[in-house]
Amino acid sequence: MRFIHTGDWHLGKSLIDWSLADDQRFTLDALLRLAEDLRPDAIVVAGDVFDRAVPPTAAVERLNDVLGELALRLEIPVVMIAGNHDSPIRLQFLSGVIGRVGLHVVGEVGDEPKGVRIVGRDGVAIDFWPLAYTDPETARGALGRSDIHSHEAVLAAHLESIRERADADARHVVVAHAFVTGAQPSESERPLTVGGSGQVSKDVFDGFDYVALGHLHRAQEVSERVRYAGSLLKYSFAEADHRKSVTVVDLAADGTVEVEEVELPSLHDLVRLRGSFAELMDHPQAAACRDVYVEVLLTGGEAVLDPMERLRGVYPYVLSLKRDGSSLDVYSQDRPAVRGRSTRELFGDFFADVTGEALSEAQEDEVDAVLTSAAREAREVAS
Description:
Elements: E1 2-6, E2 14-15, E3 18-19, H1 21-38, E4 42-45, H2 57-73, E5 78-81, H3 88-92, E6 103-106, E7 116-119, E8 125-131, H4 136-143, H5 151-165, E9 171-177, E10 179-180, E11 199-200, E12 210-214, E13 220-223, E14 226-228, E15 245-251, E16 257-263, E17 270-275, H6 277-281, E18 293-298, H7 307-312, E19 318-323, H8 343-355, H9 361-378
Parallel strand pairs: 1-4, 4-5, 5-6, 8-9, 9-12, 10-11, 12-14, 17-18, 18-19
Antiparallel strand pairs: 1-15, 2-3, 7-8, 13-14, 15-16
């Protein structure tokens, strides 16, 4: 069987204040052309379909168009799960009638993972196990287990259930949205949890033929059979060096796995440029950067009148302007001591200022629990 592993589309996302709707449409059209050329037996979307729980109408319409093309025109089955950016309830709503036309969308795992059997062109039967993102508190209620307090415990419980029911004559592919220890994260990914309970060991996936992961935006191999496909596009300037792709997986009847990363074209690339204002205005790469999104890091301390407007005469898509030695945008009002720090760290500083004492370990755990609960509730309301 051959299938395409993708994920982290983040439909509805903006880069700083610039809408990426046209960029996402361009690259998803390329994905549709690839699917038409390869005619895979399935397409797997490993979570974070949308960028927020209540996506803009245009993002929903784009997803509708893509799924319609895949399922109705190309007749390719799709297995899709909710990620931590998605609303599980809203994605789960898609899982009724559309399952009959080959769209298998899982927003909530519930008390027991449910497999999706797809038989490939060579007669190989593969059971896909879509494990939508589930936080520990939700899993404790759904499974009736008070011992689940981490994301690894959630996945271990789901995978144990699968192993107990797995058909020995079939191949088994897990689709999950998780942060696996040892993999490389990017700054544009929302943390799965406040404390350290969000990381998962790759060992929990032992015994499965392939694990299609979402959440981390860099395409990467965790182990021979455990992989991240990476995000659809470069979603921050920290990802400027990423190579965005989808993973084409060939899984043979004997369990042999072959993978190929297929790069998808983008409407605009991302680049970071560093130099003095004069150097940037006469940069040797200026002509090549007229159609890419640009982040500028200004060196030197000279005062420049309207630097952003003047730079846009050379780089029409410059979106960010920073001074050397500062992580802040030139026009940002954020304080350097705040930018890049977690909510828990900021609360800890506030607590120490008010009480004169640092948070105890028990108090830190309590703050983590409250912030994680708040993040879970936020996924169900518009941002």
